[in-house]
Specification:
Layout: H1 2-6, H2 9-141, H3 143-191, H4 194-202, H5 205-211, H6 214-237
Length: 275
């Protein structure tokens, strides 16, 4: 109390001011500490939110990995099953594989032989084409010569045919004349008596021909010519098989067989087809 009585208002004010300054400083420190704590709290909350998000993401990633692992396990089991089936199938197919390999080797050898043959045939074909081209060039170069030769051969065969036909006509006329003369002799002999016939037959043939009447001989010649002409016309109209039965065909020397004219390029035929 004595001290309080001795404290003056100035001292009291100064003490209060010092206490105010001390409390103010203390409050400032507390406020600064509060602000720091609040800042730390905000940081902690933000960090907690981040961690919570990370936890959620980790959970999602974990679930995805678990599903992926489960899918992989399923695929692994499926692959193992397929591998087991494939092994069993291989065991069953190994004998067939050996047979197929054997068949493949045989077919390979066969195809090799066929290829060699095809190669040889192709070479032969190329040689044949080359030869044909050379031959065609040679034929084209000598085409006029072959055409002239063909014409000459045709003319030769036509001349032979005309000669044979003319000889055939002359022989036919001679036969007709001889038949007519024989008929006249037979008719003459029929009119004669037996004695006259004996006398005539005892004479030479030349005397018999002299005894014929000139008019009868001329008539016989004309009749033979007419008959020969009529036979010629009938032979042109009718086939040769329709000749009279009483005429004996004269064996003629077989004419040279007329070969078919050689084909030319103008006949739309290949002259080398026979080769």
């Amino acid at each position: 109390m004595a001290d309080e009585g001795t404290i003056t208002p100035e001292i009291r004010i100064s003490e209060l001011e010092e206490a105010l300054a001390t409390e103010t400083e203390r409050l400032q420190k507390l406020f600064a500490a509060y602000e720091g704590q609040e800042k730390d709290l905000l940081d902690a909350r933000a960090e907690i939110e981040v961690l919570e998000k990370e936890i959620i993401e980790r959970e999602i990633e974990k679930e995805a990995q678990e599903s992926l692992i489960a899918e992989k396990d399923f695929r692994i089991r499926d692959l193992e099953m397929k591998a087991t089936k494939a092994d069993k199938r291989v065991e069953h197919l190994e004998p067939e594989l050996e047979k197929m390999e054997e068949k493949y080797s045989r077919e390979k050898d066969r195809l090799g032989k066929i290829f060699n043959i095809a190669t040889e045939l192709d070479d032969d074909l190329k040689l044949a084409v080359t030869e044909m081209k050379a031959r065609d060039d040679w034929y084209v170069a000598h085409m006029t010569l072959f055409e002239d030769l063909n014409k000459a051969i045709k003319e030769r065969y036509e001349m032979i045919e005309r000669a044979v036909e003319s000889e055939r006509k002359s022989q036919h006329m001679a036969r007709a004349f001889e038949e007519r003369v024989d008929e006249m002799v037979e008719a003459r002999a029929a009119e004669m008596t037996v004695e006259e016939a004996e006398q005539i037959t005892s004479k030479p043939t030349d005397s018999e021909e002299k005894n014929y009447d000139d008019e009868q001989v001329e008539e016989a010649i004309e009749t033979a010519a007419e008959e020969a002409q009529a036979d010629e016309e009938s032979s042109e109209e009718a086939p040769a098989e329709e000749a009279p039965a009483d005429e004996t065909p004269v064996e003629e020397a077989p004419a040279e067989e007329t070969p078919a004219p050689a084909p030319t390029w103008g006949d739309d035929e290949d002259p080398w087809a026979d080769n």
